[in-house]
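DM from R.C. (forwarded with permission)

"hey, sorry to bug you on a friday — could you get me a structure for this? deadline for the figure draft is monday and I only need the backbone to look sensible"
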Amino acid sequence: MKINLKNMKKIFALIVPVMLLTDAVTAQNETDAFRYSYINHFGTARFNAMGGAFTALGGDFSSIALNPGALAVYRGSEIVFTPAFDLNSTDASVNGYSMNDSKLNVNISNFSYVGNFNAASHDIISWDFAFGYTRLANFNNEYSIDIASSSPSLLQSYINDLNAGNGTYEGDIPDLYPFDINLAYQNYLINPLATDTMHYSHEMANATSINKYKNVTTRGGMGETFVGYGANLNDVLYFGATVGFPKIRYIEKSVYQESNDDTTVTVQSFTKNDYLKTTGSGINFKLGVIYRVVDWFRVGLALHSSSYFTMHDSWNSNMDAKFKDNSSYSYSSPAGLYDYNLRTPYRVEAGVGFIIAQNGALSVDYEYVDYTAAKFNPSSNSPDGYSFVEENKNIDLMFKPTHNVRAGFEWKFTEEIRMQLGYRWYDNPYAFAKNPNQQIYSGGIGYKTDEFYINLGYFYQNQQQQALLHYGSEEVVNKNSTNHNLSISFGVRF
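My reply, with the result:
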């Protein structure tokens, strides 16, 4: 069979953005692999304000997360702590209906210690040791939508699955569909036909208009604790290495409800609640170097290994149904539990830095990330022997390598006061979908003395995504999300 690649690209351009962002309690798929592979590199307020463009500069703790060679640039020891405030706002719309949800979250963007020590060697001027934490991703978000729809019910999608082929034996429903269709079946929303018990109908089939409400709340984040070592060779070459221990915590709660006032329909309303929690612990390694070509020009290069995660998913669902004869029912799924392993993509970081008249700095970074390198693998704690072949094929098909750019500028107005500006551009990671490239704009100001410093950083991000209103729906939720992040770093130097 000959495959028409042009037509396949058109198809995937339509379905990939929606399929990847469908809200459902299903685990270990390409959506999860991408979620835990996509990193924004948060950190100190100065780092955030300068767009994270520190691969060739160093001298800031968060720069070590990009290029371990940045650790060797330190001339003294310091402790720094950075709380951050995230305001996320999402406008969700479907067919002219729209709603807005906002959520304020407080988190720790960074805390760290760097120790600088003189070296006995003639070639090695000093060496540095560091340990600390930096935040890699925020998962905090919420959106809601409430519409009057003439499209079929979620129950119709369930019926389509049950009636496919030769139909479905009633006794198989609990085992085949424990988290969705069986809930509706147990609540009498789906019933076998009187003349054919292998095929089914549902109680909302005659509704001419259905009120559909959906709310999805996600929370959690990804952060990394790491230890590092750096060495300063003659103030020309700065080498460094780190071992990182990333952690993942992701929680998703989804509420979907349908109701109607049609007198010919027996159902008043039903509500489906889904819950998913994912936790993971991993390890990675990074090597980096900064070369000071001349006093005013530096280049940096760093290699990040893949992160190797041990993952655990737990999920459950329940459904309530209310009928117009005042009867009501409720049914819950069993607890879903699964352990597996995840390997996220390796990264290559490169950058150039310019020192301007001893009063300013300009830095530009390039980052290469191949999202097709993300892979699932079975865990020794999961005896079912599932190999994730299809999920890994989907990752290869749906994603592509990306080329990201970061730029930052800093100017020293006085010996104490500095101002920063930054910009980040993230390449579209989807192979066929024409998603907009992500952009982040940032700025900040800082006060610095020989003993302490305080920095204030701000960045703004806008993101557009899509999700299906419910399983099997042709109604697409368009989500426009904005993120305002304010971080404050407090540092002590000694």
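R.C.: lifesaver. Residues 118 and 138 are 38 Å apart (CA to CA).
me: no worries. The longest helix spans residues 5-20.
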